[in-house]
Specification:
The protein is 42% helix and 16% strand. It is α/β, with parallel strands linked by helices. A seven-stranded mixed beta sheet has the order 1-3-2-4-5-6-12, sandwiched between helices. Helix 8 (273-283) runs parallel beside helix 9. The longest helix has 23 residues, at 4-26. The protein starts with a helix and ends in a 9-residue tail after the last helix.
Length: 406
């Protein structure tokens, strides 16, 4: 079904881009005045107790609050970080939560995790407000759109530091950790286009969005469409609302394929899509479409391994969970300011050949990616280089918030 040579050619192009992008981010304009640069329904405590601190520290023995994950030198303060996601129960979102829990353990803080089950933005805001009212010292949350931006800014104005992740609204006066969303769409669209034959590709490609209106997802759609339109003979349809709940997501893609049985590509923008598209391919083995989408969950990897899906673009969920917690603790312990800006979490590019990783990290074989997807502990170990060398320098990585959509 797939063309290994074309995949490898594209992986080489992507690798060059990622190296350049990481270099540009690290060597950006030092004079920028911005100051900156998808569980359970009940909150969970991801903090570690520590297991060998001889004496409590003064809050940050190395000036940045970083830890090595063994619980030693735990600070004497008793910080609580609220971590509020836009949906609970999604495998990709759990990967973000795993990163946040690793940070809480390393830094010796309490972590309260919550969020709505069905992506209700208003319910998410209420959950955040309740945790702040209960005494949370800092708040990390995704921001699905403008409907809750005012409420988030009220929390900031009330004196609680906030860092946002994964989904953003640019009117929120807080730093944001996430992917470079339009560019990630271009990467995914380029992978699909290369597999279809490049600029000579013909037929129909369909784009699906699980949360229409969410700015980051709209940006991804724009990037995918831009890349696919490099083939004049390829008709691009959508984005169509394909829902986020697993059974609804599959049903939406099933209806789109029924309406477009000759489609050459079905491209999703959210975590459930690759698994749904693989299952759809299994149910329609004579269909010629290739399926692609986002996130390196175990469910998505299974469909790629089986040859029923082609590619998935990751957004480094460990970084999106760990870094916001680190930034909040850095602010609370060391006074490091939290101003509006963007920190690129990095883009991962996965096919059956393996994954290209950001920030100069080594590429992973497909089996290695599978191992990480099934183990928060192995994931934490793999990203030790980021914890040691990148995350403590987050304030040097801040870009203007507008760069997220470039």
């Amino acid at each position: 079904m797939t063309n290994r040579n074309s995949s490898k050619r594209w992986r080489g192009i992507v690798a060059l881009f990622l190296v350049f992008a990481m270099f540009a981010a690290a060597c950006g304009d030092d004079d920028d005045d911005s100051g900156a640069a998808d569980g359970a329904d009940e909150p969970s405590d991801g903090a570690g107790d520590g297991d060998g601190a001889d004496e409590p520290s003064d809050g940050a023995d190395d000036g940045n609050g970083a830890g090595d994950g063994d619980g030693t030198d735990e600070p004497s303060d008793d910080l609580t970080i609220a971590f509020v996601t836009h949906v609970i129960g999604n495998p990709f979102i759990q990967q973000i939560i795993d990163g946040a829990e690793a940070a809480a353990s390393d830094l010796g803080v309490n972590l309260e995790v919550t969020g709505p089950a069905g992506g209700d933005a208003d319910a998410q805001l209420v959950a955040a407000q309740n945790l702040v009212a209960a005494g949370a010292d800092g708040l990390a949350m995704s921001v699905p759109g403008s409907s809750i931006a005012f409420g988030v800014n009220e929390i900031i104005d009330g004196g609680t530091p906030v860092v946002t992740f994964n989904l953003l609204d640019t009117s929120v006066e807080a730093p944001y950790v996430g992917e470079r969303s339009v560019e990630s769409g271009r990467i995914l669209g380029g992978l699909v286009l290369e597999e279809l034959g490049g600029a000579e590709a013909t037929g129909t490609a369909i784009i699906g969005n699980c949360f229409p209106g969410f700015p980051v997802l709209e940006n991804r759609a724009a990037g995918v469409e831009e890349a696919l339109r490099a083939a004049p003979g390829l008709e691009v349809l959508g984005p169509f609302d394909v829902k986020v709940e697993v059974t609804e997501n599959y049903a939406a893609w099933e209806a789109l394929l029924a309406a477009n049985p000759d489609a050459k590509a079905l491209v999703g923008l959210c975590a459930p899509d690759v698994a749904s598209l693989g299952q759809l391919k299994a149910a329609n083995p004579d269909s010629e479409f290739i399926g692609a989408g986002y996130d390196l969950t175990a469910e998505n990897l299974a469909e790629i391994e089986a040859g029923r899906a082609f590619a998935s673009v990751g957004q480094t969920p460990f970084m999106q969970g760990y870094l916001p917690v680190f930034m909040l603790v850095d602010n609370l312990r060391n006074g490091t300011p939290l101003e509006q800006g963007f920190v690129d979490a990095g883009t991962q590019v996965l096919t059956i050949d393996g994954s290209i990783e950001p920030y100069g990290l080594p590429s992973l074989s497909f089996s290695e990616v599978q191992e990480l997807a099934g183990s928060p502990e192995q994931t934490r170990e793999f990203y030790q280089t980021l914890v040691d060398n990148v995350i403590p320098t987050w304030s040097d990585l801040i870009e203007p918030i507008e760069n997220e959509a470039q």
